[in-house]
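Read as chain and fold; for instance:
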Amino acid sequence: MTQLEVISPGGQIQFYELDPGKGVLNIGRHVDNDVVIDAPGVSPFHAIIDYRQRPYHLVVLSHEGNIRLNGQKLIPNTPVELNYWDSLEIAGFTLLLVEGQAAPSPVPAAAAGAAAVAAVAAAPEAPVDASQPSPPLPHSPTPSLNAPVPNIGDDVIVVEVTEREWTLDVEQSASTLVTIINGGAIVAGFDVQVQGVPAEWVVVTPSTVNLNEGQRASVTVTITPPRASSSQAGARYFGIVVTSPDHPGRLSQTGAVLTINPYYEFSVSDLSPKRQTLSWRKQMGQVSLSLGNKGNSQTDFEVEGADDERACSFEFRLPDQDVSLANRAEFALKSQETASISVDITPRKRSTFGLRKKLHAFTITARQTEGEGFPYSLLGQLYTKPVFGMLHLILFLILLAIGVYLFFQPRITEFYAEPPVTRAGREVTLSWNTFPSPLVTLTLNHEPMEHSVGSAAYRPIEDAEYHLSASTLLSEYLPFLPYPHKEKTIEVVVTPVRPTIRLFEASRNLINQGDTIILSWLVSEADTEGGLNLTYEVGGEDVEAQKLESNAGSVALLPQQNTTYRLEAIHPSSPNAPQVQWASVEMVPTVTPTFTPMPTPIPPPVIDFFIVEPETITAGEVVNLSWHVRGVDTVSVQTISPDPLPAISPPDIINAPAETTLYVLTANNGGGAVQAVKQVIVQPAVTPTPEAAPVIEVFTITPEEGVSGEKVDARLDWFVNGPTTNIHITGGPKGFEPLANLESFGNAEIKDLDETAVFILTAINDETEVLKTVQILFLEPTPTPEPEPGPPPEPDPEITRFIAAPLSSGDSVTSIDGDPPTYEVTSGSNVDLQWETANADTVTLVGVGDQAPSGNYTIFNVRAGRTYQLIAQGPQASVDSTLRLTIVAAPPPPPPYNLNGAVEGSAIRLTWNYDAQQTNNIIGFRIYRADVPPGNFTRVADENTLTNLTTQWTDTTLTETCGKGYYIVAVYIDATTGDRKETDASRYSWYSDPCP
């Protein structure tokens, strides 16, 4: 039956059988585990071994401490294979998976080793068969490199050796004391030699001694393996040989073993070449490097390739291997062995067009998978040329520019006038055509035209020249290029016209005062826009002129005295040849009556503006009133509110109304009064929220009593929970300096107290203060008899461990540097506070209560950061330890995927998938729909109907199923704020067929 051998740091060995009926072996500090390891750094349930099928698997459950398999650190929650004789190290314990055998009695490892050596010494004369492999030392992690050296004793040369086994690093020394006893009958000299290790490793002091009969002497043998290839890792057997020239043929030999620990060192050559360029015909680049193992044992190595943009693939070719390894290669090298590695670098995507070469900066990283060495990173550069480069692009641009010039230059293909000769004022039509007409902009005699192909009508009154100019964006931005057809000019010949007055007369020539006359006219070929003027002449002087808008018409007039009317007709084509006719009216004298004027009424006042701002305020704020009036005698402002204003008349006022108020502005004069009304809404003032009061959890003084006449050193301890703006301690004896701006937890030493004193701790949060006092009381000494000698004083209490750990593998608690120790907790995780104390009467977790001397306290569903303090109280003193929890947000859940839809009659049924392991992290789904076009999405279903287990939904609210688009998101609760939030949208939306 397979067994798990457990070796404690002290050398004790225990065996645990793997029960086939159970299939799983639990390892941890809790008593319910199959293998209980009660040591610091071991979690209550630290790891499990699954041996239900081969190969066995080991899973680490805790982030606490380090657990190594064959020297390699393991990652929590990641299964790894576990084979026979694999060495598992945890908190100083070594666990070995061994083949089934009868479980021996627990024996200290050191005793087992001594027994093995003693067994060899017991048979010095037994021959040694070098062809048979020597049995390995108990629990030795490395195989033997040679055979053990037998012990050979002698009655004349008697030797005793104090140490025969060593395990050390290179450049460390192993020493042993060799005692030589002269068992012969004569005085003899003795020589000490070490056989089996290089002579340069050995120092024998002294190397030769002379002894009388029965006399003894000691020689020190020191072996120092150098940091060199000769110091191969593993067990090296050697012999300490003592001979005497005075006793030829006799010797004494003692076998010993030196186990050299491995050291790790390697070298990497630079990349060759470091920089190269790939043309389009060459698909990949090649670089080579050499990696050498400079350590003293076979070591596994790993080389890996990567580029900054992840745009290249890497293939590694190793010596004596026919296949290439993608992106990463793992291999082993013997000590002092060197491997040449070739790397093929292939860009995944090549540029078709480009102005310059594309740079791929890459890194080849080499590292050893054992030991603590740092990786080597070699930098290289790979350039890729585009198919069409700079020269191709320049040629293409030149051809494109020529084509653009030929096609986009402006051209006027037609421009003519119809008729080319006309009389003044007659209509002339100008017509034109251009190319390319959609892109051409025209100006006719510097006036922009709306259309590049068309016509326009004009009525010239004199000879005219029309200049048509065409332009495009090309001619505007590149005016220096030749454009031979962009301008054309034509001329229209115009014959002048003279006007004729055919009729101009008054209906009556003799009238009475107040009579109306009708003045009529008929004119041909006159300009109605300023070319037909009617002038009034009274007493031979022009008193009024009027422009007539029509060549034929009449007007009713009321002349007041004798008047002559003159009609003047002008044509623009002959402005210097006007036509004139006259018409006269004579007035019959009449008697003019006398009228008494009436007084003019006073106009009412005018309010230009009346402004009250702001129109909405909070109680306590002020408003400004301003106005402007005209034609007034008095101005007043009244208020309609519980706090009315007196009538006032300044140009503006400031008021602070307590309630909603109407302001009435009244402007008055002898002709009447006008008013304007404005309202101001007053909102109640917001009552400030009082600051939360802090809580003084702990404030103590140790000791609490003293003896009068004796000086005492006291200690103040405090812990304040909640927000604070200041913490200070006052009071104390005369001359005590107050302690201000204190941290929320801490302690202070008060030296040489010799009188009763009261200390006051004040915690302040803005306007809120909380006080707590402590007192040290000095009493008169009481005469007591001489005490009996008692037991020694109790030792002071200690807190040996106070940490925060995740409760299970699903919780995240990470230790970070800080004072006090700080842990980052993912919001919603469960945290287990664990502690161990010594010599404590009481243990208190502040804010929770008294606890066991060694125990734990679980905080479930942590949502906010907090500081925890543990206090251990002994008979004479107390100690405390503090840790802090800070909160980091949990990552949001993933979005849904595989959104699909199907039209079912007048409805659409949607289906989707969601990761089953994430369903507990969401509360449901939301679906958004849009009409396509225009594509504006609105929510049509939410988590109230779509729970976290829903995977389909039917949209039955449609009038038509075509032209619809949908996407879906998951809804989760933000663990930090408690708000509902949406995940990213599904990667793909679903659209129905477009509407016809």
